[in-house]
Amino acid sequence: MTPGSDQSSGDLTRDDGYELDRSAVAAILYAVDTEDKEQLTRLMEPLHAADIADLLEQINSNDRERLIHLYGREFDGEILTELEESVREDVIPILNPQVLAEAVRDLETDDVVDLVEDLEEPQQEAILDVLEDADRVAVEQSLSYPENSAGRLMQREVVMAPEHWNVGQTIDFLRESDDLPEQFYHVILVDPRMKPIGNVTLGKLMGARREVLLVDLQEEVFEVIPADQDEEEVAYAFNQYHLISAPVVDGDDRLVGVITIDDAMVVLDEEHEEDILRLAGVGESALSDSVADTSKKRLPWLGVNLFTAICASLVISQFEATIAELVSLAILMPIVASMGGNAGTQSLTVAVRALATKDLTGANVWRVIRRELLVGMLNGLCFAAVLGVVGMLWFSSPMLGAVIGTALVFNMIIAGFAGTVVPVTLDKMGIDPALASGTFVTTTTDVMGFFIFLGLASKVLL
Amino acid sequence: MTPGSDQSSGDLTRDDGYELDRSAVAAILYAVDTEDKEQLTRLMEPLHAADIADLLEQINSNDRERLIHLYGREFDGEILTELEESVREDVIPILNPQVLAEAVRDLETDDVVDLVEDLEEPQQEAILDVLEDADRVAVEQSLSYPENSAGRLMQREVVMAPEHWNVGQTIDFLRESDDLPEQFYHVILVDPRMKPIGNVTLGKLMGARREVLLVDLQEEVFEVIPADQDEEEVAYAFNQYHLISAPVVDGDDRLVGVITIDDAMVVLDEEHEEDILRLAGVGESALSDSVADTSKKRLPWLGVNLFTAICASLVISQFEATIAELVSLAILMPIVASMGGNAGTQSLTVAVRALATKDLTGANVWRVIRRELLVGMLNGLCFAAVLGVVGMLWFSSPMLGAVIGTALVFNMIIAGFAGTVVPVTLDKMGIDPALASGTFVTTTTDVMGFFIFLGLASKVLL
Q: Is B280 within 8 Å of A345 when comparing Cβ atoms?
């Protein structure tokens, strides 16, 4: 995006806020079709790298390849870092090696890390090879930190000052440095052993007199991030404490890098995506994945579901004789299971989310479980009344109405209980509750729903 | 948190990363029980306002009230802004009016807006009354913007410079201002009509010579946010373009405020929470809501589900005679519905998420639908094979195996189709797809699952 342009200016042409405009995409594809390089460059020029990445993800692979060939040397390294993994793996081999080299050399080292960490070995090598020696060493050092750790996320270029400096010394030092990082928001105060002890914002530095000591300007809120901390925790800290940047330290508490909020925001977004997709049993997936990949990624959860559905069917089969005598039971039984499944999903989603935001802890877990039991009972009673009447009117059997109502109440209490206890237990065991809770909870409500309803019916109605 | 403290220092005592430690909570509650104000203050002092807010949310309302009374004047305004709405409404009346007044007066105006916008009228008045006149006017002006708009989110204190200034003039101006905002990261360049035309980071300003023009230092990426833009779009823009701060303009393109990334991150987090909870049919909810509130909030979706479950039962009842003759159909039919429901949920979650990130657009919607149909068919065929064998072995009827397998394939194709078309259509109609897609999709897969399986069985097996 050129300076001064904004979303209302003509060329950007996004109709719904920031969404890529369909006609802009069409115009770009037309330029590709007619091999009009000049027009293509003109159309792409106002687009931000992130938007170009979105565009490349949304068009088909044939158009993508032709567009990249025609676009040629204009291809920017930042586009690569913004691409979904699966598309990125397709794009890298298409790029002319020289274009790739130029694109990558322009990137900051933390972006290169981001780019190469998910790539297959040969592609990773190809990119590391084009870097200058110093940059390659920096990237390789970052890659030595565990995956998804603060060490991978941080940038190594830091701006720091000894704790005894005053504003004047710091400003002179900054004016004389000729390679300040692209983006920085704080000067980090360090003690003689390189341990970070405080942050001073550039705004405070600007507004203070030269003789003021840095220690007198430091921010009230200051968090130091260990390099091996999981990036999910890093994102949580930024969100919880409204941090803008935070120093990263190694095992000896020495400053080794800095993480800025824009990187933390990306992580927060990814963690959310992971949770939402895992809750639905989808796993990591992107819209640009192929049919085969998508199918493969979704199979495991569906397989588990098939297994649990067969378990539920086994429960039903125990009551084969009962159903043969009273077919209305087969008609009504899915209602009990379905209501339990939905109530259980509600409880477990609230619990999974509360665990992620650290709002559900040892301090309140019992109160939350009690609440879920009561909510299950209350809502169960409401719908039991409705369903009792439906059962009575439809099948003219008050007893059938009473049986389905009772079964519903019990199943919804069970749903509330399982919906909280299952994710909390998984979390305690170190398993992501978003990943596995759904199966356990809906299996419980299915099996128990059929069992209570059919069991009660066989005792009472026959 | 005091300057220099970090998460490894003794008093903070958080065991799992940033989670509140159970023993720290116990110690605080013990101080409350023994009315040991000194000890309470000592224990609370190292805690960040956001952590104190979490603590207040996690303890019961009785302990909460006693803690607040004992804590007295130490109560900080920032704690209020960090609290969940329902707890906040409980806390405000407990606070001594003078403590409340002091707490609120310390806040920036955008935090006051955040605090009062969700409050009931009398509580809102009580807070606005304690503000100084200038602040009250600022807050009331912000409240005049629509709810969840950029105007509500922005802070009104901006740092700007005429477009023709150089670095020296700007630095002198900053040094002479005596009320720079607490946090700012850019100097906004404006034209003579107050239209923002560019951003210069403080880092660049520090590093450049005095005679360099500001326009030569401006950032490449620059987005201007209209004051009436929805905050969800604002968060998207910050995340997509890695913005740190962005100027907000009124209808005449005049600068009226600035939004910083920390506020955008909070919005992103809230929007995700909303999506994840809506997908589960929970709506807005917090762990600290009462049983009655929780129950009431979950009823609507369960009611809708009851209705759709009854629809599915009506479909089953059409095949009463068939089931009476062949009870194994009743045993197997939940499997077809359950597999369809799960496959549909997978598709719709991917679609809802892709719509939120603007990855699913007019440019690729047909390709995505085709992919979902193919994935449904592929996975359907896989499990049809398994299920066919199960049906055959269990009930020794190859034809029954063939029927359930065929029904499964069709239902999973339907699931893939509905799981994409439903959210896309709702989105086009301006309805949040996270809110309503689930009902439509699972109703479709339930009804169609039962209909195809039982219908086919009645034709083929009887």
A: yes
